[in-house]
Amino acid sequence: MIEFQHVSFSYEKERSVLEDLSFRIGPGESVGLIGANGAGKSTVMKLALGLLSGEGRILADGIEVSRANLADVRRRIGFVLQNSDNQMFMPTVYEDMIFAPLNYGLSREEAEQRVDKALGQLGLQELKYRHNHRISGGEKRMAAIATILAMEPDVILMDEPSSALDPYNRRIVINTIRGLKQTKLIASHDLDMILDTCERVILLDRGRIVADGPADEILRDRELLEAHRMELPFCLAGEAEEKDPGSGL
Amino acid sequence: MHMADALLAPAVAATMYVASGTAAGVSIHKLRKDDEPQKLPTMAVTAALVFAGQMINYTIPGTGSSGHMCGGMLLSALLGPQAGFLSMIVILAIQCLFFADGGLMALGANIWNMAFYGCFVGYYLIWRPIMRSHWFGEGKNAQRSRIIAASIIGCIVTLQLGAFSVVLETTLSGITELPFGAFVALMLPIHLAIGLIEGLITAAVLVFVFDSRPELLRDVADEGQEMPAKRSLKAVIAILAVLALVVGGGLSLLASSNPDGLEWALFGNAEKGYSENMGLDEDDFGVASVTADKAGAIQEKTSFLPDYAFADNDTPVGTTVSGIVGSVMVAGVALLICLAGGFFRKNKKS
Amino acid sequence: MNKMEKALHELGEMDDLTAMDSPIHRLSPLAKLLTAIIYIIVVVSFRKYDLSGLAVMLLFPVILFQISGVPVRTCFYKLRIVLPLVMAVGLFNPLYDRAPLLTLGSLPVSGGVVSMLSLMLKGLLCLMASFLLIATTPIDSLCAALRKLHLPSTLVTLLLLTYRYVGVMTEELAVMTDAYHLRAPGQKGIHVSAWGSFLGQLLLRSMDRAQELYGSMLLRGYHGHFHYAPGRRFGLWDALYTAGSSAVFLLLRFVNAAELLGRLVVR
């Protein structure tokens, strides 16, 4: 569960990046965070993880995100970075996966069990001892998700999990996300993927929430999306055109 | 300028390991006092960048050839001398381990020749004093000029020191028959040219960083904010001049009448050459310990062993012929091992 | 293929070699590291005219190559970097040391030639030893071994992280180099007008990358410590391997086996 209460954020001397953000994501919910470039999606994620700190209150699993609780918060939230190379900093997949469990005080045996469990859940056993710079982009993204699963977090944040993947690997990632039972917040421009994986969508524009509701409603609302520099998902664009053949041009 | 293991005697290599190890120890100590966990990722990524960046070919205008970048100056300007030094060590270790550039035993010497001079001498004696000075006046352009000057002077000086050390280490190891003076006369001018080019390339990169994000560079004052010059530039120039005098004076002395001057000075016995410098070096560097004594004893023992074609002067042809025949037989054995290995592997596969 | 792609290829090749399985691969990394160091020290300590004694040392890497199944070809490819400097230094020996040391038939062979050859052989042997070490030992096990030798964690962790990002950075520069040359046909290297920006751009991006990387480490509980896999324990076989081969090296250093072998035939 994640809750933002009147959160604002700005870098020094610059205009505010986020203004008075409030929302609550309940346990087990899957929420898509969408918005044009610079809308503040990454900042929301970094604030939730305590990598940045702003004004207002942020609660993760009921614990306030603050300096004192940082370790407690971070072991409950997993973050899948957009660039898997930045996430996977150890030479092999195995060492990357075991990094967090060991840091959180598990014995090597327990940590190893977690690694195997996470690999098994995603069907990645054969990647275990592979080198990070020798696996494909799709494998890397899946391995990055596996490193986060090995932490057994309650909440998973994802930044563009489907970017730079071929259709086949993108589908694998989408199916994987759908299979995860944790609370999820997914930031992406891939609205088709959001439609497939999230029941709820939060639309950001220039640091403000402009819409928050069921994915099915918001992602079909062409006017709303276009007003905030977005487009209909591709799979819905065709439907809309059939109903209203004139507006496609 | 990477030295190979074969170019060093164990005693020289060990001495260089001790010297480089000490500098590394001091650097780690300093880094731990600062914020080490936060610095490590930056150091690793920058080191990796410099590693890859040294593979870029920069075209030198007006010539057909190309130059490369100097890692030490770049790293210490970005990370500071201690973090830069440690990053350079790691770069050299990876070059040595994975690309066979340098050698395991020569790593200590290579760290000294390339990382120590580049980071510590380059930073404390050149980069910082020049950047904090008032050379070229005030303002952004003056700062740019100071970066260029510091990069070029830094690269030239540190490369000269490095090349000189290569010569010194090789000669002390008794590897080459090339007289010290001739060797120096060969190495230093080449590295003068290389240093100039490397300095220009490094300057170009640093000026680009300065124009985009000046806060990334060490000792670059924000506009209006003055940094106190700790050591006056005059003092630094004096130090550099003395350094140049010592090196240059020593060179001309050696290169003049007696090319074997250094050998005489160091060993007092030019006839024996360097074949027995292992024991002598230990004395020279004051490594007096049980192991050193033992090594000396072993050394002594071996000199009594018939060192064919050297001590065993009576029958040089006979002994060497048996040596050659033996070597051929060894080659035969090696071949047999290869054949056997291939045979077993084939059987395993089928 | 540009230079960076070649480097990446070489790194990949080493990864593949370490993934193989053989009795040598299964030895403790510490045993292999110590043995390689002792071997190199012994090889380098051979006298400059002791060519035949040195030749016997060749047997160790040959045996290791055979047992481990690591191809010699990959190793010889790496010689191209080491040998030039060794040769540059060694080539002067025949010029300065002309005293004939022995005669082969009627052909006098000078001391300089012998010392040059032994220098080159030393270069080859040392390279083979460290190549075999790294071709049979993954970097993470090697780092664990270095920690066991009490190398400071700062340095070992830095080595591990840098090794990982050498792959990433080299790949980025490889792509950038290709992109540059596609727009600058006929140029051999980077033109002077792009000297600063070419690497500078990547450098600025890398600084942001380092921040993100640090964030990613923090999120996974990093607080200054890396845990190294305990790896294989230093067992009886490892001890035997290290002690046995070291003893043989020392013996070969002081007893010229080639000489003895040759005497069986010649006399």
User: Radius of gyration of chain A, rounded?
Assistant: 19 Å
What is the quaternary state of this protein? Answer: heterotrimer
User: Beta-strand level of the residues of chain B, as a percent range?
Assistant: under 5%
Q: Name the shape of chain B in a single word.
A: globular
Major sheet characteristics of chain B: 2 strands, antiparallel
Series of secondary-structure elements of chain B, N-terminal to C-terminal: HHEEHHHHHHHHHH
Low-confidence stretches of chain A: none
* Average pLDDT reading of chain A: 89
What is the averaged pLDDT score of chain B?
76
Number of helices of chain A: 11
Low-confidence stretches of chain B: 224-231, 254-292, 295-319
Radius of gyration of chain B over alpha carbons? 25 Å
**CATH top level class name of chain B:** Mainly Alpha
The helix content of chain A is 25-40%
Q: In angstroms, what separates the terminal alpha carbons of chain A?
A: 42 Å
> Strand order within the widest sheet of chain A?
6-7-8-3-9-10
Largest sheet of chain A: 6 strands, mixed
